[in-house]
Design brief:
The complex is a heterodimer of chains A (about 260) and B (about 425). Chain A is an alpha+beta fold and about 260 residues long. Chain A has a domain of about 170 residues: Alpha-Beta Plaits, CATH 3.30.70.20. Chain A is built from eight helices and 13 strands. In chain A, the strands form five sheets. Chain A has a four-stranded mixed β-sheet with strand order 11-1-13-12. Chain A has a three-stranded antiparallel β-sheet with strand order 3-2-6, with no helix packed on it. In chain A, strands 4-5 form a two-stranded antiparallel ribbon. Chain A starts with a helix and ends in a 7-residue tail after the last strand. Chain B is an all-alpha fold. Chain B has a domain of about 210 residues. In chain B, about 70% of the residues lie in helices and about 0% in strands. Chain B has a two-stranded antiparallel sheet with strand order 1-2. The chains are: A alpha+beta (about 260), B mainly alpha (about 425). Chains A and B meet through strand 3, helix 4, helix 5 and strand 9 of A and strand 1 of B. Bound molecules: iron/sulfur cluster (2 copies). One iron/sulfur cluster (SF4) binds next to helix 5 of chain A. The site of one iron/sulfur cluster has 16 residues of chain A, from helix 5.
Chain lengths: ~260, ~425
């Protein structure tokens, strides 16, 4: 698939070089992609495989130049602990960058909470990232169109155009967005769009030692992600917002928000 | 390394790692200032459109004041941007699915309408002043410049015959008529910016624009009433100093009579809009509790516990109930009305605060909370823009502008004429 795309791309570049100046705008990258309707990215998270090691977060911060010490991250892993009485505890210290090594739950200003292991009914980890929603409120509300949807799915931010109003940050129900601490523009996970288009997987997928994260092409009927999305019982996050997320979850529990 | 918002946010319990209070004090100021603009304009239109003749004096005042407030409505927006120098792109490359993108259009339409209306109201004055200056023997340089400015302000329309004035009058009525829906739109749309954020449980309600408009009118009227009273007090003091017959002398009794009359009538309209605003807000609160959606647990914790003091004491008790009783109490005096206006203004400010900051007081996880700490001491550019200095700048500018504007469009002009 990559090769075919590459050849296709190469032909377009050659064709582009051959046409007169006036026709150049036809070769807008967006249009080129739109002409390739065989790409539609989807993400699959198998929460039952996640152990909360935080390798994905480390890889993401490094790959995407999100300062190591900044308290934001394009991807993060949440820990949920549900007691036998039904009380739900959750935490995400340092975006799970260093992995979960302590049984204490970090409840921010409320301190560290310890739950008696005998009281615990269930506990699990949930990796999170931008859902690249098919109906993205973040792109809808951007007043200057700096946040936009690519034809193959992912939502991107034009860092040279973002005015930093924060409207998109407010309108994402998943907390996926933040202000880049150095560049002072909106930032979020792109599913490593720059890597996808070089035929690579995202940094987090590559870094997960347990295969909890997968990325695939929904237009390819034999892609393992497509097969899982079609055949398995999968969930999405917060369907009530009508955002139509393209990140799918195996083993989602009702406690997860 | 601090992320935007981190410096004034404390998190409690489970909050998404990327969540912070990113919309801070300037976004409280934004709807507050646009509200004042819209409210002041609506007050001025009561006279021009609905023919509430008794409001003539304060109407002209409110019109000019609304214009002075106008540039200030976009200052907080600029100050809160992370890339303020790109702010102009909202006007240049608007993306129309966004509520904010309409800002440029709504704002400039409104500005044009107010400017036109003011021009029609003051055209006669411009012409007369320009002519007087022209005929003045041995002018100094200042007079020369003034003559130039006033001649320019006439825009070449020198006809001040009775028929022409008649036409002007009609035009004023039309401008004021168009102005009301546009003013409501300007502010209702500020409400829409919040009301349409489906990710925020507190903001998302179709009532938001209406609630915003009502409280806007309330705050606009209250501010006009307050500033009007202060200006009139100043004039009274001046009148006391000057001897009868001297230049600029005005009868003290006359000023007092006008002031008393205008303030009382304005207070009446203030009460009406206060009732409307309060009812809508209450409806919203009751409705949320009654329907008790998933978010209600988090909202209830914020409204009834964490922010209870700000909501029920500062906003409702001090900002609504107290001034309402003060205005309702028999034998209303100018002083009491002015003090009540201060409380009203405070109440509307707290309402904006409770909406903007309160809306970010709970996490989208509904499991955790965020608290905003106003940065009292500015330590960096962020706390400078979105701290005391930024707020003061926004709050003071309209008065400076009003002072300057008043030099060219004196708000108490016609009354002097009448006296003469
Ligand atoms: S998860 Fe949030 S940031 Fe990502 S596309 Fe959806 S709304 Fe936008
Ligand atoms: S912060 Fe940037 S990307 Fe987000 S809505 Fe504002 S201009 Fe658009």
């Amino acid at each position: 698939m990559e090769r075919r795309n590459f050849i296709k791309g190469a032909i377009m570049v050659v064709a582009g070089a051959a046409v007169p100046m006036a026709a150049l705008e036809i070769l807008d990258p967006k249009d080129v992609l739109a002409a390739n309707p065989d790409l539609k990215w989807a993400f699959l998270v198998d929460t039952t495989k996640c152990v909360g090691c935080g390798m994905c977060v480390k890889a993401c911060k490094t790959e995407n130049d999100i300062p190591w010490t900044a308290n934001v991250s394009r991807t993060w892993v949440e820990r949920y602990v549900v007691t036998k009485e039904g009380k739900v505890w959750a935490d995400c210290p340092k975006q799970a960058r260093d992995g979960y090594t302590s049984p204490l739950l970090d409840e921010n200003a409320a301190g560290k909470i310890s739950v008696d292991p005998n009281d615990i009914a269930k506990g699990f980890f949930v990796p999170k990232l931008c859902n690249q929603c098919d109906n993205p409120p973040c792109a809808q509300v951007c007043p200057v169109g700096a946040t936009y949807k690519t034809p193959d799915g992912p939502i991107l931010v034009d860092r040279t155009w973002c005015i930093g109003c924060g409207y998109c940050i407010q309108s994402c129900p998943y907390g996926a967005r933040f202000f880049h601490p150095v560049l002072h523009v909106a930032d979020k996970c792109t599913w490593c769009y720059h890597r996808l288009h070089h035929g690579m997987k995202t940094a987090c997928v590559g870094a997960c030692p347990f295969g909890a994260r997968q990325i695939g092409n929904l237009r390819d009927p034999n892609d393992p992600v497509t097969l899982a999305v079609l055949d398995d019982r999968i969930g999405i996050l917060k369907p009530e917002y009508g955002t139509n997320p393209q990140a799918f979850y195996i083993g989602l529990s009702k406690e997860v928000d | 390394m601090l992320v935007h918002g981190e410096i004034w946010t404390t998190k409690e319990y489970f909050v998404y790692p990327n969540e912070y209070v990113t919309w801070a004090i300037q976004i409280v100021m934004y709807p507050y200032m646009t509200g004042l603009v819209a409210g002041a304009f609506v007050l001025s239109s009561l006279y021009h459109v609905f023919g509430v003749k008794q409001l003539k004096d304060i109407a002209r005042f409110a019109l000019v004041f609304s214009f002075a407030l106008l540039p200030v409505a976009m200052m907080p927006l600029m100050l809160h941007l992370q890339q303020p120098f790109r702010g102009i792109e909202v006007m240049m490359t608007p993306h129309f699915t966004s509520a904010i993108a309409a800002f440029g259009i709504v704002f400039s339409t409104y500005a044009a309408i107010v400017a036109t209306e003011i021009w029609f109201v003051y055209r006669k004055y411009f012409v007369e002043t320009a002519l007087a200056l022209k005929n003045k023997p041995n002018k100094g340089m200042i007079d020369g410049i003034r003559q130039l400015i006033f001649s320019a302000l006439t825009l070449g329309a020198w006809d001040i015959s009775n028929e022409a004035m008649e036409k002007d009058h009609k035009a004023i009525g039309i401008m004021a008529g168009i102005g009301i829906p546009v003013a409501c739109f300007l502010h209702g749309y500020a409400g829409f910016i919040f009301g349409s954020v489906k990710a925020n449980a507190l903001w998302m309600t179709p009532l938001m624009p209406v609630i915003f408009i009502m409280s806007a009118v309330v705050s606009g009227i209250a501010l006009c009433l307050l500033v009007y009273t202060i200006v009139m007090e100043g004039r009274k003091r001046l009148a006391r100093l000057k001897k009868p017959g001297s230049y600029g002398y005005q009868d003290l009794k006359h000023i007092r009579g006008v002031e008393d009359h205008e303030v009382k009538l304005t207070a009446k309209f203030l009460k009406i809009f206060m009732i409307l605003a309060f009812t809508l807000e209450l409806l919203d609160l009751v409705f949320r509790g009654y329907t008790a959606m998933k978010s209600w647990d988090a909202l209830r914790a914020v409204i009834y516990q964490r922010d209870a003091f700000k909501v029920f004491v500062l906003q409702y008790a001090i900002g609504n109930v107290l001034p309402f009783i003060m205005l309702l109490w028999p034998r209303l005096t100018v002083k009491r009305a002015a003090i009540a206006s201060v409380f009203v203004l405070f109440g509307v400010f707290m309402m904006r605060w409770n909406v903007v900051i309160g809306g970010q007081a709970f996490s989208s996880t509904f499991h955790g909370f965020m608290e905003y700490h106003f940065p009292w001491v500015p330590v960096n550019a962020e706390t400078f823009k979105e701290g005391w200095p930024g707020v003061l700048l926004v709050a003071v500018t309209p008065f400076v502008l009003f002072y300057i504007l008043n030099k060219f469009v004196p708000v108490f002009l016609m009354e002097k004429e009448k006296d003469a």
